[in-house]
Amino acid sequence: MKEKTSIRYYRNKAVRSRFDAQTATWMVCATDLINATVVTSNPKVYWYAVKRRHPEIVTNCKQLKMTASDGKVYSTDCLNSKGIKMLADLLPGKQRVDVLNWLGGGNNPLDVLSKRKAYELFESGIIDDIEVGTVKGLQQIHAFIFDGLYDFAGLIREKNISKNNFMFANAQFLPEILERIDEMPEKTFDQIIEKYIEMNIAHPFMEGNGRATRIWLDLILKTNLGKCVDWSKIDKNDYMNAMAGSPYDSRVISSLISEALTSETANREIIIKGIDYSYYYEEVEKSRSSPKRGLSQNEKVHSPYLFFYPVSASLTLSLPRLSSLILAYPVFAPLILSYPRLSCLCPVYPVLSSPCPSSGRD
Predict the structure, then answer these.
(1) What is the C-alpha to C-alpha distance for residues 318 and 334, in angstroms, rounded to an integer?
(2) In which band, very low, low, confident or very high, does the pLDDT at 112 lie, cut at 50, 70 and 90?
(3) Superfamily for 110-289?
(4) What pLDDT digit, counting tens, does each position of 88-108 carry?
(5) Which residues contact 279 (CB under 8 A, 6 or more apart)?
(6) Is the N end or the C end of the chain the one with fewer CB atoms within 10 Å?
């Protein structure tokens, strides 16, 4: 039987977990949880002190094999949910509440449920029936992991969305854009990354784009290159910054992914870890949620400059001017539609006076 391992995050600190087949429960590493919740220079010493002073917690603790940071496997003290609650009771009031919220999936149970469905996508073997490298395949992935959670699961959006003041592909042009992304080659690593970036700019769904598209990317890499991404090797901030800059320069995200490639495409731990990290990337950090934000449901695109895209070396495009060109000279429309990175910056006049919903997370 394959081992079921996972990684959860408490305030950006990794907490290893392992499924115990005997009790049919997920258990978390005690010292990892202490390291994430308690200010201590030595989590192991702290844990030993807890066991000595509160021996009753040991009844909810079990030693399971876990892979450490040095790559070796050790017998590790792991806590079940009752043991986690007992440990939480030893913490100050607010910390206790935070740990219990974390145990219950925090304030966003949707993430917990969709992550379970992402695990199931691989463990059930359904992933092997997904179309590789197509928009339909991406829709299949999105539909599976968000089925019953979003009423638009697997459906191409019909509204414009933005994030951190970047407007994704105009919904009016989205069908044509996705057709052209479908036709993009994916035989080499560079071609695959280019296709991934274009799909990210297209952002075909109202929510859940990043989580679905990273699975889609791994499928393309596995099919064409016999590799996948070990997402645990890519720092969250590095990844988010690289993706934000990818419409202008693909070299950074290409380098990050290239250095994280592995041939262990059947390694369950890497697959599950990849899902864990993918969801971790999308966690909204309070410290970063303000001052940069996307447009809310009630905001409109008032500025003549929504975002800039350097067409050659650095050319700033004014949306009204570009829209005017399209309307005055229809010959420009095929050029824009054939290049997603331009089309996402080209709403026509009706869009400029209508609300643009924000997509705060992926």
Answers:
(1) 19
(2) confident
(3) Fido-like domain (1.10.3290.10)
(4) 999 888 888 888 877 765 545
(5) 111, 114, 115, 118, 211
(6) N
Q: What is the DSSP string of 73-106?
A: EEEEEEE-HHHHHHHHTTS-HHHHHHHHHHHTTT
Give me the residue spans of the domains in the chain.
5-107, 110-289
Element (H, E) at 20: strand 13-20
Copy the structure tokens of residue 189: 């690593």
Q: How confident is the model at residue 337 (pLDDT cuts 50, 70, 90)?
A: very low
Q: Could you give the 3-state DSSP secondary structure of residue 27?
A: strand
The pTM assigned to this predicted structure is 0.64
CA-based nearest residue to 268, from 67, 32, 62: 67
Backbone angles phi, psi at 361, to 5 degrees: -135, 165
pLDDT tens figures, 282-327: 875 433 333 333 333 322 232 323 333 333 222 333 333 343 344 4
Distance (Å, whole) CA 292 – CA 283: 15
Largest CA-CA distance found in the chain, in angstroms, rounded: 79
Q: How many CB atoms lie within 10 A of CB 303?
A: 11
Please enumerate in sequence order all residues whose Cβ is within 8 A of that of 6, keeping only pairs 6 or more positions apart, or say none.
Answer: 16, 17, 18, 19, 26, 119, 272, 273, 276
